[in-house]
Structure formats: structure tokens, C-alpha cells
């Protein structure tokens, strides 16, 4: 049974789940509104619970043996077909995702949605060349077999929902696992569009399923299902802990990417203008980017010069409607999130931290928040230690390299770090000393899909990317055959 499709500004989107190759409705729904105009209700989306979680996992369990038995080449053909369909539909998906979560339409169209297609294509290729290892020892022939692990639950956050979901689902499917995807309730529509393409690409029923709904309801039901053999999650540390507990109960491996509080280090020998321009990029997407370098750590000798350049670069930003080309600053995702961001700034002000610029909602109707720079009273300030996930950066200074490292490593997070310096030896030294999963020197967000990706500390557990993801979604098995065993 399913509900009529919804017209989202000219694009037809199903508000239903996708289970076992069919659209499935729920008796309950949840509202999905556009952050571009909060009075605009985009859809009433199917709100799954224990029943839908059970149906979707059952479908993934039933589809698993046949999917796992296919060769990587055969699975890769499905993934390549899906990638081609995503490329065909980039504009439509970009438009809906822009309306749904307010990322700039142009960057969705030119960069982010196409990366979803690249994720499927890259993993189709990587799985084809994902070798078994064999060697002889102690009178036996040893072979390492990489076996598909089983039904996999993927839970994703509301920022970049399409790209982040494909980043996890692509390796899971390529490794031979079946998938149940649960996107975030604040921006579910682009993942529903993905399921139309999964159907069109002819995936066997049950291989790739989608259930929608609230985390505490359908999400919790999915991660506690004992038939699930892998869980991949991106979201907050609080939810990561709950998912970790559920995974531990069933002894299920999980990966979790839980956000960051990345340092952005600027040394006196850096190209200060380039550093300031890049620091202003941290306000893109309303600062709702886990990899952003949100703690500006600047050598004290260039503090004033850097702040002036940074403020000038920030003023170049154009706040507006994310559909328009001229806009560079989008609204935040949800009124609750704006209140959360504003709460951090209000508490910082009360605590005695200095607001160097910004620090206000732009108006009381929209969800825009001013680009904000805070100079904290001390490194213990909440605004330095906790992830804001909004357009709010902090500014601190250091006197020398060891102080820079100490400050950079002083939060519980460890997802990313950015360094601006013209000294390659320093870059390499710091690369080893900084606690982070990814470190960019004189650049930001350049990604190679075969490189490991993930966090240390409370930024997460496990690594995705390249063979690291394929290893996670596989069970490694050792086969030892005594030498001389003859063919039967
Ligand atoms: P954020 O703070 O970015 O919204 P959350 O961790 O709350 O991050 O949400 C990320 C994803 O986790 C969403 O898809 C959400 O529905 C889901 N989620 C939230 N709570 C749970 C839970 N208890 N179990 C499983 N998934 C959950």
C-alpha cells in the first residue's frame, strides 16, 4: 500500500518507505518543512516504527544470500547503473535537497550530488580489485577470504543527506551486503529519490531498502535488531553512544562519525590572505559541516592582520535564498537548531567570552544566523570545547609551535585539522602530532575516496573510505588447506 507522490516544486517525490522493492506507507507521518521558508511544508513523510524496521530488516535478510553470492563484477554493474541514473538526475535531486536542507543549489548541482554517483562508481571498481591474499606456511596453503558480512543498517544525519548516505551504502552494497538506510527526519527527501533510481536500476528486491522516521523510534528499532550484522552511523556523540550500546548487545561491529571541533592553525609564515579566505569558507552551509575548522588558532604576531583579513573575507559572503546563484550563506536547517546555535552564543556572552563580530539571528522569521567570531575567555569555554554546528568560529592565539599543538589537541574531538604554513617540514611535523582523522595543509575538503576517513576521540570509531570501508563491511576468514590435499 502506498501514498500518492508529492509534487515538491515540480519534482515528484514519494513520501513512503521503500522495502523489498516496493513503496510502503505508514499509518503515521511527520512533517518536512523547508528551511528556506518555514511556512512551506514540503511533504508529510511516512513515519516508520518497530513494524517498518522489522519489515525492512526481514527484506534485507531474505535478499542477502543471493546478493552475497554474486561476483563483485555483477554487483558492480548494478552500482554503475545507479551512478549513471544519479548523474542523469543531478539537477532534480539538487533542487529537492536544496529545498529540504538549504545547502546552496549550485554547489549541490556542481559538486555534492555528483559525488553520490562517484561513490557508487568508485566502490564498484574497488570491489572488483579487492583481492584475497594467499600464502604457504607450516605445511598449509592459507587464503584470506573476504566474505560479505550481512544485512547492514545505515543511519545518516541531515546535513548532505544524499552524499553521506551514498558514501556508506556504496561500499556496503559493493562488499555484498544488503542495506536498510534510515535518513534523518529533517531532510529525508533526496534519499527517497535515490530509491526511485534503485528501482529503475533493477536492483533485486530487498537489496537496498529505505525506512523513514524519527531516530528514537525507527532508528532505535533498526540498530537493536539482532539480524543486523553491521551498523554505520553519522551523527552526534550522544546518539553514537546509544547506537554503540545497541551494537554491543548484539556483538555487531559499528562505525560512527560523530562530528568535530577542528583546529584551523595559521602560522606567521603562512599566506595570510589565502588562510583568511579559506577560514571564511567555514561559514558555508551555515557552518553545518562536521569537517569544518571551527577553532581559529593564529600565531600571536599576525593576529590583528589575520582578523582584519578574515573579517573582510567574511563580509564578501552574501546571505540569501540558497536557490540563487549570488547567495553564499544559507539558512540553518530547523528552528530548533537555530535556537541551539544561539544558545551557545548567548552562554558564551554570559560567560564573558568576547563576540568579535556577528552573534545574532539575522531576523526573526527566517533561519539565518550571522557569521560569528568569538574570542573566548579561556580554552575551557564551552564555545571552544563543544561542537556548535553553526556559523560560529572561535579565535585563539599561540606563541610557538608546541603551544599550537597543545591547543589544537585540547578538545575531546579529533575529526579534522587545517594548517596554513609555508614550511613543509612544519606541516609534516604537525601532521604527526595533531590528533585528527584528516589533516589538510593549505587546502580544505579535497578528498580522495580511497583514503581512510573517520575520527579519533569522541569524533568516532572506525574508518570509511577505500578498502577500509570494504574491510568493515566484510568478515575476513582464513582458509587453511594442508599441502598435498588432492583434487577429489
Ligand atoms: P544531529 O544532532 O545531527 O541531528 P543525531 O545523532 O540526533 O544528530 O541524528 C543523526 C541520525 O541518527 C538521524 O537519522 C536520527 O534520526 C538518528 N537517531 C537519533 N536517535 C537515534 C537512536 N536512538 N537510535 C538510532 N538512530 C537515531
List the helices and strands and how they pair.
Elements: E1 6-8, E2 11-13, E3 17-19, E4 22-24, E5 29-34, E6 37-46, H1 50-69, H2 72-88, H3 90-101, H4 105-128, E7 133-137, E8 140-148, E9 152-155, H5 161-174, E10 179-182, H6 189-200, E11 208-210, H7 215-223, E12 230-234, H8 237-249, E13 254-257, E14 262-266, H9 272-281, E15 293-299, H10 303-315, H11 335-351, E16 354-357, E17 372-375, H12 382-385, E18 392-398, H13 401-408, E19 416-420, H14 424-433, E20 438-441, E21 460-461, H15 466-472, E22 474-482
Parallel strand pairs: 9-10, 9-12, 10-11, 12-13, 14-15, 14-19, 15-18, 17-18, 19-20
Antiparallel strand pairs: 1-2, 3-4, 5-6, 7-8, 8-22, 13-21, 16-17
Helix pairs in contact: 1-7, 2-4, 3-4, 3-6, 4-5, 9-10
Adenosine-5'-diphosphate binds at residues 155-158, 182, 184-185, 214-216, 219-220, 223, 235-236, 239, 242-243.
Low-confidence stretches: none
Say how many strands there are. Answer: 22
CATH class of the largest domain: Alpha Beta
Task: Please name the CATH architecture of the largest domain.
Answer: 3-Layer(aba) Sandwich
First CA to last CA: what distance?
53 Å
Radius of gyration: 23 Å
CATH superfamily of the largest domain: Aldehyde Dehydrogenase, Chain A, domain 1
The general outline is: globular
Mean pLDDT: 97
The percent of residues in helical segments reads: 25-40%
- In total, the number of domains comes to 2
Amino acid at each position: 500500500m502506498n501514498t500518492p507522490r508529492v509534487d515538491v516544486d515540480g519534482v515528484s517525490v514519494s513520501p513512503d518507505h521503500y522495502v523489498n522493492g516496493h513503496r510502503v506507507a505508514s499509518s503515521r507521518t511527520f512533517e518536512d518543512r523547508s528551511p528556506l521558508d518555514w511556512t512551506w511544508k514540503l511533504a508529510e513523510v511516512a513515519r516508520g516504527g518497530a513494524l517498518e524496521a522489522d519489515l525492512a530488516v526481514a527484506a534485507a535478510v531474505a535478499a542477502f544470500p543471493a546478493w552475497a553470492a554474486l561476483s563483485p563484477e555483477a554487483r558492480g554493474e548494478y552500482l554503475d547503473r545507479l551512478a549513471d541514473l544519479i548523474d542523469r538526475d543531478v539537477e532534480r535531486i539538487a533542487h529537492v535537497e536544496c529545498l529540504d536542507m538549504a545547502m546552496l543549489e549550485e554547489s549541490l548541482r556542481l559538486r555534492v550530488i555528483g559525488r553520490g554517483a562517484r561513490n557508487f562508481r568508485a566502490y564498484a571498481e574497488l570491489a572488483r580489485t579487492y583481492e584475497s591474499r594467499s600464502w604457504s606456511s607450516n605445511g598449509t596453503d592459507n587464503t584470506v577470504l573476504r566474505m560479505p558480512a550481512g544485512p547492514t543498517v545505515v543511519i545518516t544525519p541531515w546535513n548532505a543527506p544524499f552524499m553521506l548516505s551514498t558514501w556508506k551504502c556504496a561500499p556496503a552494497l559493493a562488499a555484498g551486503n544488503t542495506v536498510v538506510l534510515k535518513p534523518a527526519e529533517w531532510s529525508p527527501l533526496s534519499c527517497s529519490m535515490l530509491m526511485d533510481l534503485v528501482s529503475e536500476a533493477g536492483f533485486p528486491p530487498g537489496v537496498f531498502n529505505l525506512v523513514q522516521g524519527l531516530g528514537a523510534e525507527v532508528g532505535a528499532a533498526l540498530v537493536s535488531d539482532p539480524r543486523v550484522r553491521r551498523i554505520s552511523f553519522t551523527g552526534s556523540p550522544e546518539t553514537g553512544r546509544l547506537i554503540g550500546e545497541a551494537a554491543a548487545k548484539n556483538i555487531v561491529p559499528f562505525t560512527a562519525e560523530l562530528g568535530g571541533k577542528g583546529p584551523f592553525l595559521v602560522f606567521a609564515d603562512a599566506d595570510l590572505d589565502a588562510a583568511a579566505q579559506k577560514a571564511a569558507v567555514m561559514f558555508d552551509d551555515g557552518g553545518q559541516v562536521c569537517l569544518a575548522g571551527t577553532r581559529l588558532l593564529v600565531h600571536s604576531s599576525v593576529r590583528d592582520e589575520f582578523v582584519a583579513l578574515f573579517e573582510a573575507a567574511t563580509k564578501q559572503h552574501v546571505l540569501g535564498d540558497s536557490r540563487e546563484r549570488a547567495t553564499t550563506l544559507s539558512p540553518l536547517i530547523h528552528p530548533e537548531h537555530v535556537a541551539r546555535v544561539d544558545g551557545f552564543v548567548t552562554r558564551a556572552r554570559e560567560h564573558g567570552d568576547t563576540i568579535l563580530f556577528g552573534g545574532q539571528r539575522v531576523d526573526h522569521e527566517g533561519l539565518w544566523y550571522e557569521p560569528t567570531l568569538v574570542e573566548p575567555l579561556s580554552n575551557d569555554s564551552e564555545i571552544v570545547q563543544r561542537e556548535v554546528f553553526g556559523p560560529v568560529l572561535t579565535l585563539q592565539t599561540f606563541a610557538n609551535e608546541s603551544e599550537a599543538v597543545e591547543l589544537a589537541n585540547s578538545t575531546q574531538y579529533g575529526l579534522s585539522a587545517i594548517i596554513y604554513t609555508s614550511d613543509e617540514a612544519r606541516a609534516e611535523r604537525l601532521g604527526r602530532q595533531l590528533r585528527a582523522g584528516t589533516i589538510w595543509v593549505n587546502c580544505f575538503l579535497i578528498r580522495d575516496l580511497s583514503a581512510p576517513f573517520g575520527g579519533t576521540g569522541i569524533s568516532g570509531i572506525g574508518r570509511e573510505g577505500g578498502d577500509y570501508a570494504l574491510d568493515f563491511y566484510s568478515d575476513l576468514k582464513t582458509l587453511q588447506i594442508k599441502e598435498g590435499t588432492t583434487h577429489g
